[in-house]
Amino acid sequence: MIKNMNTFMNTILQPFISKNKLPNGPEEPELFQLMNLLVRPLEYVEECVNRYGYMFTIRPFGFSPLVFIGHSQGIKEIFSTHAKSFDIGDTDTKAILHPLCGDHAIILLNGSEHKRERKLLMPAFHGDRVKLYAEKICEIIDSVTSNWEINKPFIARSVMEEITLKTLMHTVFGFSKGGKSKQFMSVITDWIDFINAPVQSSLLYVRFLQVDLGAWSPWGHFIKTKQTIDKLLQAELEDRRTNREKLGDDIFSLMLEATYEDGQTMSDEHVKHELVTLLYAGYETTATALAWAFYWLEQSPRVKRKLLQEIDSLGKNPDPIEISKLPYLTAVCEETLRLYPTLPFAFARTAKQDMEIMGRFFEAGTTFYPSIYSVHQQEDLYPNPKRFRPERFLERQYTPYEFIPFGGGPRFCLGYALAMLEMKLVIASIVSKYNLELADNQPIKPVLHFISSIAPSNGVPLVMTGFR
What we know:
This protein has helices at 2-13, 30-39, 41-52, 72-81, 91-101, 111-121, 128-145, 156-173, 179-196, 198-201, 218-242, 251-257, 268-299, 301-312, 320-324, 327-339, 372-376, 392-395, 416-431, and strands at residues 55-58, 66-69, 86-88, 153-155, 349-351, 355-357, 360-362, 367-370, 434-438, 446-449, 453-456, 461-467. By secondary structure, it is of the alpha+beta class.
């Protein structure tokens, strides 16, 4: 009788009982949680992992609760098992990214729209197309580094930004030199520097501060610069649509020529939104990863010697594609991306239906935040995880849920092959030609640049001491 009564009461009350008790997490004020995520994200997330485990809830001020997942098993379930059961981001995340990317950027699309867009853009970033860019990347590297002077310090991150931006000018627009290239680079640099400045980037998180009070106001400057980029892209777009002979092998031209399965082409707004996203995602992130790589190589003489031996084994003037296949060079890049992944967190994913993650029930509407950085610090996967040790990637084959610097699942970064090629060629070209040293012994701390990368606090000051 009592058992039947309990069953009856559970059935009656079930619709009013929420199963969605989120995992434990920090209990300090929500504004404090937001500030920690913005100012010291890696330390804060590590503290949470140590206290609450690999699944915890953070409630940043102005945002919905975020369930952080920092274990490879949970990542697998999000990227693979339940991949079709999520929408990218939530309304908060989209509100942050929309002023940067616009309505049509692939990173903000979901479901069939995302799949359709990805299928259209994929050929521009893979196969023989990427190989065509290799020799030009090497030319750009030589052009930039030929100005170095012996014993004159320089900031590695600044040099890498110059290389990556010029590479983007060539691969995305087909620009090599000239007025258009300089004009685009100037405006893009201004825009991204603004976004990455701590005070200005906070405007994207605190929306009531997004007030245009003219070009001298922070938000007004952002809007004006974004409009300038839009005008430049529109003029170039119209020029190429009118003068078809100007279409080439660059990504911009491929976007203009690409057609969907129904024969439709991308609209002007669509092309511009994708290009702006590509410029932001491909410029600063790769430059930051390269700055870290040179820092770790100068901190690890043994690794640098081993890398030089591998590069030297190819002889003089090796083919760029052969360089890109070197296993230890690849491991150096992978270990760099493991320690400080360009994106410490994957984009938020909101559950479209009830589901179970790592044995825990969650209701539809729950927003998950996969922590790439936490997975890369998982001790059972990466013993002594703070140590720079490329050999670990030669000793073990990591799954797509254990090593995820470019995200995973159906949202795996489209430009990963080009980014890896660029990293390998820059590292190999520079270390094989120049003797470098750290210019000082000041400690370097990782700092967050908006949402894009974990950058070295001082940009990694280096000095060229001679030629090899």
